[in-house]
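Lab notebook, bench 4. Still working through the backlog of constructs that have no structural model yet. Next entry is a single chain of 173 residues. Request: give me the structure tokens for it.
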Amino acid sequence: MTKHAQRKGRIPSSQVRRLIWISVIVAIFALGATAAVSLRAKRPASSTQTDVTNTNLRSRVETPVLLNPQTGQVRPLTQEEAQRLADGLKQLANQSTDGLQSVRHADGSVSMDLQGRFQNVAVAKLDEDGKLIQSCIDNPEAGAAFFGIDPQLVGVKKAASKTNNELLKGRDR
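Model written out:
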């Protein structure tokens, strides 16, 4: 510290720089902590229309993990639970083109609003041993096969399933 700074009662510049750096570091940590807390906090369902739609879709598909109290094993779905799951799969993995309109633009390009259809959906379940199994599906039939539910619940025609099975049997010969 210089004699002039001592006489005037000033803080030396090295201490000022140190205080500034400490303040910057504390501010960065505070911002990081605030961001982490805000990411963990639940967003209100009414924040946007998309959030409401996604929440509704998730609540239709999600089924709580139900264990058999005597064995501790995952129990099979009830008919009602399987139907709710199938309804959600039909909506999430919808591959239908019904009602979709293409729009031709002035520059010659063509676009189409897919209205939430043609999506890949990440799915997961617990197997009999309680291990997590995950997959990605892009159609309701694949979802039905993954969850082991009747394909007719998701709208797959029984005749089509028989034809596929017959074709597979024919290949083995």
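Notes after review: The CA atoms of residues 92 and 121 lie 7 Å apart. DSSP finds six helices and four strands in the chain. Flag for follow-up if needed.
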